[in-house]
């Protein structure tokens, strides 16, 4: 890669920093405004078989249409099968997704679907108490939302097999860097960043055991430290020039000259 391309890469990184700083200021401004009521991301499932259906069964079936939300207190999926006073299942359930577009997809694909021999009904949940009577103070809700998002982002963006594990900055050849993952001009919510980080990490787990994972939103990069050199090399080989959300990923080892990777790529326009 020549000096002109190196200079262009530096300028684009600087623009990314400026753009993210702008987004941060905008979030601070928006944070002072009254908080809007959360979107309903829950579905109500009825006409389920009253026997033999577990929460795990529903999670498996409905996770095809989006990420299912977890409770911040106990890390359990927000899925409940309703029972009568004797503890016998009534044949209906509630399930909560993370993204607002997931319920529509689940309803389209699963409403009227034959599940365990019965045609189930799937619809957007109607809350008489939990959502419609939203009485939590904005400040308290904002605090809880911020704490939960920060915890989620920290867990996903900075994940390691061992809390004492060295970071990718340590000298080793087992770390792969995936660049050009995000569009610097796009607006991302914390949950969206967490989803992208999760997708990247899970996609890399097929190559081998991961010891350390870090997602850098500022540089639009992911750092993945593998247990073996073989796994790192396989990841670098398979992920370089692969498309993710319409963007061409650049993959290289941490101890590798990035110019070797970029000069062998088809173009430089994605950065």
From TrEMBL:
<dbReference type="GO" id="GO:0003723">
    <property type="term" value="F:RNA binding"/>
</dbReference>
<dbReference type="InterPro" id="IPR000504">
    <property type="entry name" value="RRM_dom"/>
</dbReference>
<feature type="domain" description="RRM">
    <location>
        <begin position="41"/>
        <end position="127"/>
    </location>
</feature>
<keyword id="KW-0175">Coiled coil</keyword>
<dbReference type="GO" id="GO:0005686">
    <property type="term" value="C:U2 snRNP"/>
</dbReference>
<feature type="domain" description="RRM">
    <location>
        <begin position="174"/>
        <end position="256"/>
    </location>
</feature>
<dbReference type="InterPro" id="IPR034393">
    <property type="entry name" value="TatSF1-like"/>
</dbReference>
<feature type="coiled-coil region">
    <location>
        <begin position="117"/>
        <end position="144"/>
    </location>
</feature>
<protein>
    <submittedName>
        <fullName>LAFE_0H16468g1_1</fullName>
    </submittedName>
</protein>
<keyword id="KW-0694">RNA-binding</keyword>
<dbReference type="InterPro" id="IPR035979">
    <property type="entry name" value="RBD_domain_sf"/>
</dbReference>
<dbReference type="InterPro" id="IPR012677">
    <property type="entry name" value="Nucleotide-bd_a/b_plait_sf"/>
</dbReference>
<dbReference type="GO" id="GO:0005684">
    <property type="term" value="C:U2-type spliceosomal complex"/>
</dbReference>
<dbReference type="Pfam" id="PF00076">
    <property type="entry name" value="RRM_1"/>
</dbReference>
